[in-house]
Structure formats: structure tokens, C-alpha cells
Specification:
0% strand; mainly alpha; 14 helices; globular; 79% helix; 303 residues; single chain
């Protein structure tokens, strides 16, 4: 498995086109081994994998290895110790987030590289180049346009933590969709997610959202301050969770009515432009037992 990991890593580092595909499967050898053997043996394979990564690709390969080896460990050990798929998903997501944060801090401490500032600077440079082209074409950028661009960049900088969290969870979900069927074909018993329509967030999410909204309304935080950063990200993340709860309720209702699957797809698509309404549905679904009423109504119809 370490040899297979080394081959995939070499392709990911040295082969430009195939690296886009091989990177998706880097965690597979570690996950398969960890699913078969306990934590100590899996940890030894992980250490050997890191050493091989340095030997094959030098320092450039280490960040890639430190992302996919811990991911493979969490996925495999979750299978080995018969944890739920939700536990696997949350554990892998938190592991990836911690790995990225540690590498980000290490890059700042040892190399003086701040990826967020570099990315923001690249965005500003791109905007300046676009404005230069507009001036060459005889279209001078208006003040409204410049204010809109500046507000967009500031919003992006503010919501960077939330965007990172959502990107991490989405990435882990995609990787699980790819890797778990392969592990199943290799003879490993993998857990399954419960249906999305059965998703229920803890009711405490409502209280968190209420507290964040009240504090935001009663306080006047200045943009750029730590308090503004915290509450802006908390509000955005909680709104996204309530949006997912609303979409889950749509799926539940369609299933209860016995409508065809294409209706579920159509409802999900329309949920995005109706994001505010869907979030309200999510709030009502959490705060009141709407699903219970619907179930009882269908049971009474059946009788």
C-alpha cells in the first residue's frame, strides 16, 4: 500500500494532467490498509508514507502527503472500528481543516507566506488590469463600480473562514463519494449515509442563530474588527446550515407525497434562488414538529 501511495504521489507531483486524477485517489491505499488493520499498524504505514513522500518529491510533496495521509487514516480507521458514515465525514472534514490550518501557519512562520493576502493581492491586481483594459477601450470605471469591487473584495476577505470550511466539507464529501465505492469493491464493508431527507440539525442551532442575529442587530461592529469577522462568519455558516435543513424538508415532503424523483431534483434547483425562503422553512422545520404533522396526516389518510 505504501508503494501504491508512492506511485500515486509521484504522478501527482510530476505529471501535470494525470495529477488532477491521481490526487483524488491518494488517500485510497492508506484508507484500505487502515480499514484492515488497527491504529498502531496504520500509524506506522502513515509514517512510512510521509518519509517516502519526502524522498520522492522533497518539500513540495510533503504538504500533499500531510493532507491525504491523515484523511486516509480517518476514513480507514472509521471503517475498521465500525463507526458511522457521519462520524467518518465529520472526522475527515475536521482532519482536513486542521491539516490546512497547520500548514498555513507553518508557511507564515517559516517562509513568510500568507496565502490569503497573496490571493487578495492577486484579486486586486486582476481588478486593476481589468480597469486598465476598460480605460483603453474608452470606458472609464465609475465610482459605483469601484465601490462594488472593493465591497466584494472586503466581503471575500471577511467570509474567508466560512468559505474555507464549506470548501473543506464539500471536498471531503466528493472524496468519500469516489473512494468508498472503490473500497467496497475491494471487499471492505463501508457505512452508508442515512437519506438526506432524514437530516435533522440539533435544535441548539436555532438558539445559536438567534443569539448571533440579536448581537448583530444590537451592536455596531466596525468592518475589519475581530468581532465583525466572528459574527459575520457565524451568521453565514448558520444560514447555510438552515438552508440545508430547508432543502432536507423539501426532500422529506416529496418522499411522503410519493412524487417522482425528478420533482426532488427540480425542488432542489429552485431552492437556491429561493434561499431566504428555504432558510425560513429550515427554521420552522427545526422549531416545530412539522414532519410529525405531515406523517400523522398521511397515516390518517391511509386509515
Amino acid at each position: 500500500m505504501t508503494a501504491l501511495f508512492a506511485v500515486l504521489l509521484a504522478i501527482s507531483v510530476y505529471v501535470p494532467v494525470l495529477s488532477l486524477i491521481s490526487t483524488l485517489f491518494l488517500a485510497l491505499p492508506i484508507a484500505w490498509y487502515s480499514a484492515k488493520y488497527p491504529a498502531k499498524a496504520s500509524a506506522l504505514v502513515a509514517v512510512v508514507g510521509v518519509v517516502l513522500s519526502f524522498m520522492i518529491g522533497g518539500l513540495l510533496a510533503i504538504p500533499l502527503a500531510l493532507i491525504h495521509i491523515p484523511l486516509g487514516l480517518v476514513i480507514g480507521l472509521s471503517i475498521h472500528y465500525k463507526k458511522s458514515k457521519l462520524f467518518m465525514f465529520m472526522g475527515a472534514s475536521i482532519t482536513l481543516l486542521l491539516s490546512l490550518m497547520i500548514q498555513y501557519l507553518a508557511a507564515m512562520a517559516f517562509f513568510g507566506i500568507n496565502f490569503i493576502e497573496e490571493f487578495t493581492a492577486a484579486m486586486r491586481l486582476s481588478v486593476e488590469q481589468t480597469e486598465g483594459w476598460m480605460e483603453r477601450l474608452g470606458q472609464t470605471p465609475t465610482e459605483d463600480y469601484q465601490e462594488l469591487v472593493e465591497e466584494f473584495i472586503l466581503t471575500f476577505e471577511t467570509l474567508m473562514p466560512t468559505l474555507l470550511i464549506l470548501a473543506v466539507f464539500t471536498t471531503v464529501w466528493v472524496l468519500l463519494v469516489i473512494l468508498l465505492p472503490i473500497l467496497k469493491r475491494l471487499g471492505t464493508t463501508v457505512p452508508k449515509f442515512p437519506p438526506f431527507r432524514d437530516m435533522r440539525l440539533p435544535k441548539s442551532v436555532l438558539w445559536y442563530y438567534l443569539i448571533v442575529i440579536l448581537v448583530s442587530l444590537l451592536s455596531d461592529f466596525e468592518q475589519g474588527t475581530m468581532a465583525y469577522l466572528i459574527f459575520a462568519n457565524a451568521s453565514t455558516l448558520l444560514q447555510f446550515l438552515l438552508f440545508l435543513q430547508g432543502v432536507s424538508f423539501y426532500h422529506f415532503y416529496v418522499h411522503q407525497e410519493g412524487w417522482p424523483r425528478w420533482v426532488t431534483v427540480l425542488v432542489t434547483i429552485f431552492a437556491f434562488p429561493l434561499q431566504s425562503f428555504t432558510s425560513i422553512i429550515g427554521i420552522l422545520d427545526l422549531g416545530f414538529d412539522i414532519r410529525g404533522w405531515i406523517k400523522r396526516a398521511h397515516e390518517s389518510k391511509g386509515k
